[in-house]
Design goal:
mainly alpha, two-stranded antiparallel sheet, 6 strands, EF_hand_dom
Length: 236
Amino acid sequence: MTAETHLQGVEISAAQFFEIWHHYDSDGNGYMDGKELQNFIQELQQARKKAGLDLTPEMKAFVDQYGKTTDGKIGIVELAQILPTEENFLLFFRCQQLKSSEDFMQTWRKYDSDHSGFIDSEELKLRMFDANNDGKLELTELARLLPVQENFLIKFQGVKMCAKEFNKAFEMYDQDGNGYIDENELDALLKDLCEKNKKELDINNLATYKKSIMALSDGGKLYRAELALILCAEEN
């Protein structure tokens, strides 16, 4: 069965849901936008009609909101709210959905207790979010639980540095050389990042960025490994 065929179902399994998601999130960036979103809306309407099913109220509201705009963007959580997914899968989302990036960072810090930079996905039974199938959940993978408008990590994808650049920046902004960055030092770093990356980062959101990132800190001490989760690109 294809992703389009799954859209005709009265109830969609978790496996079918993720087949749909990966099909329409064709570039794998963690959300649907532009042509991806318009293709999904068009094929959703066609599939429901072919199956003799009306759009649900949630689907109608979704089509009204995103059907006539080309700049819409949705994440995996938003999709789970409109598709007729089996109830236990919906309950998972309702229990796990996080309201803000700060909540998300606090949750990450709670589970990544060894500061390894990833969470064992078997332990959390969240293999469905393990995009690269390595058996470990990275910060950006688990961030798909966030509504797309709250997922500030998307913004930082375009400003990540290589390890060498990141280490140089960390040492520059760790002005007292104590091995961690405090809130004032982070403020200076983020201001410079916003100034250099105006297309990706909005300086008006600086306070939100700072609050979310500091949620990873240990009593106000943001160590290199935690900041690297946000600003250091993986190297193959």
